[in-house]
Amino acid sequence: MHRAVRESELFLNNFDQPLIVLASCCQRALQSEFLLQEVVRAADIEWGRIMSERPFLNKPDRPNHPDDPYTVESVRDTLSGILQQLAAGET
Questions:
Q1: Could you give the CA distance from residue 91 to residue 83 in angstroms, rounded to a whole number?
Q2: Please, what sign has the CA dihedral across residues 5, 59, 32, 76?
Q3: Helices and strands: H and E segment counts in the chain
Q4: Interior CA angle at 8 toward 6 and 14, to 5°?
Q5: 3-58 pLDDT tens trace
C-alpha cells in the first residue's frame, strides 16, 4: 500500500497532505475488488520476498491458505481500520 500511495498521482499533486492521500487510496482500494486484490497480491509477493518463501497467492473460488497473512478479508479489515483511525484523528 505504501508503494501505491507513494507512486500515485494524487500524492504527487498533494504531497503536503499525506493523510488525505492515504485515506483516498484506501477508499479507492475498498471500492474496487480488482484494486483490493492487487493490493493483496503485492503484499503477498513482498511478504514472500522478505521471508525468502514462496508467497501465498489467493486464487478465485479457492479457499485461502491457512498460513496466508494477507487475504482479501484481512486487508479489507486493515484498510477499513485505517480509515476509521484517520476519521477519528488517531494518527
A1: 10
A2: negative
A3: 5, 0
A4: 85
A5: 778 888 888 888 898 898 999 999 999 999 999 999 999 999 999 999 998 888 87
Can you read off the three cell numbers belonging to residue 80?
A: 477499513
Q: Is the pLDDT higher at 87 or at 61?
A: 87
Q: How far apart are CA 26 and CA 1, in angstroms?
A: 8
* First-to-final CA distance of the chain: 17
Identity of the amino acid at 50: I
Say what angle helices 33-51 and 18-31 make with each other, to 10 degrees.
110
Nearest to 69 by CA among 80, 87, 57, 59: 57
